Amino acid sequence: MKSKAHFKSHPLHPILISFPIAFFIGTLISHAGGLYLDNEEWLTTATWLNAAGIIGAVLAAVPGFIDYLYTVPPRSSAKKRASLHGLLNTSMLVLFVLLFYYRRQAMPSQLFLLTGELIGVVIMTIAGWMGGTLVHRNQIGIDMRYANAGKWQEAYFSPDSSTLEVADTSDLKVNAMMLLHINGKRIVLARTEEGYAAFDDHCTHRGGSLAGGSLICETVQCPWHGSQFSVKTGEVTAGPANMGITTYPVTEKNGKLWLKL
Ligand code: FES
């Protein structure tokens, strides 16, 4: 599922999170080192790293939130994971903002500060682990290029009627798919060896995006756990899914493809 906040297919969120991770861990290390060595400069560095971490976290959150809204498949296990990931990171950020203001008091408790930093780093580590799962298992932000699939294609429509023109016949090569957003509904338009097909972009197992899967011999395979569905009938041809997907009729007319909802 290609990221919506990317630079030349490289998602921005995983790039930017390196900064707050380094700065907040640096805050803890610098603070602990400053206390151990009784070194005022290390303590000042901790304050600056705390501030830099806050700025870095806010910058990293922007593309992360865009991907949360528009890249993570709705009603999926990944959406739940991404919600918790965001909640944990927001809590961690609020904690470091509070610590930043607290450490500027005349006589802040160093033990309180250190404990807060440690808790913040632990929360960040758990959230980071979940972020890794979102990328490496749920493939959020991955620009997949299966054989013959071509580049990721997406189109948006707000039709008044239930029948609409969605693409030119030349837009899709054989075994290529395109994700359509129609009045908020996600539908995959696919071209098979036998013609064109359309179906819901929602694997009935745990909500994986079928548009991000692979298509071959009129069968689409979910990228998350490998469930397979016939794109003509919507039937499950291989589990773990045990419920079929909804399909929609597609007709071809004068080089245009028409979808009926
Ligand atoms: S979400 Fe598990 S196979 Fe599709």
Automatic annotation (TrEMBL):
TM region positions: 12-36, 48-70, 82-102, 114-135
GO molecular function, one term: metal ion binding
The organism's place on the tree of life at top rank: Bacteria
Keywords: 2Fe-2S, Iron, Iron-sulfur, Membrane, Metal-binding, Transmembrane, Transmembrane helix
Listed InterPro entries: DUF2231_TM, Rieske_2Fe-2S, Rieske_2Fe-2S_sf
Keyword Metal-binding: yes
Domain named Rieske: residues: 164-259
Pfam families recorded: DUF2231, Rieske
PROSITE patterns: RIESKE (PS51296)
Keyword Repeat set for record: no
Name this polypeptide is given: Rieske domain-containing protein
Required cofactor names: [2Fe-2S] cluster
Family listed: Belongs to the bacterial ring-hydroxylating dioxygenase ferredoxin component family.
